[in-house]
Amino acid sequence: MRVLLVEDDPQLGRATQMGLDLSGYATDWVQTADSARSALRSHDYACVLLDLGLPQADGMVLLRELRQSGFADPVLIVTARDQIPDRIAGLDAGADDFIIKPFDLDELTARIRSACRRAHGRVHEVLRHGALAVNMAARQVSLHGQSVTLTVKEFGILRMLLEHAGQVLTREQLEETLYSWGEEIESNAIQVHIHHLRKKLGKELIRTIHAVGYVIDKTPAGEVQA
Question: Name one GO molecular function term (predicted).
């Protein structure tokens, strides 16, 4: 999952980015409102973590701009402003959550998962597809009740395809989700990850649509759609 972190404090921004990366997120970090606008024009993000006290423009201004432009993905305000009127204003402006600094990284990632779960219309942290179960919070995968170990990138691809089951995703869309700025991407990286997923989870799970991309069908192979 690719996340945009908008935070002007260098120490906090660097620490948060490192923590999120270690938690399996692809995190782009910017320090100004203008840089955030540029990043959002160039990339697709599953979630935005937004500080309010930014140079150039207050984060609340940026939040209103995003919502007025039709940006529908989760935006979580992360700020030192802890007054009730600030929280009300942020939520009324379109924020999905309001997190007070200093924060616990585990709580932050839980709130990100919760916001993204709501955005996808899910209630539970476990995604199921036939005999496959994927626990988003614990980042655990099981097949027929047996644990399966995936790399961070393999888990990211599986999550993306399951969340968009029935929809063909291109290599570029998958790369956009998996890699943050500065990460080197081999030309066949996605193909290699898909190959490994098929070896671990069965070749019938992920279908290749020639010259288009990859898809996990909504109805698991062998099951009859009602």
Answer: phosphorelay response regulator activity
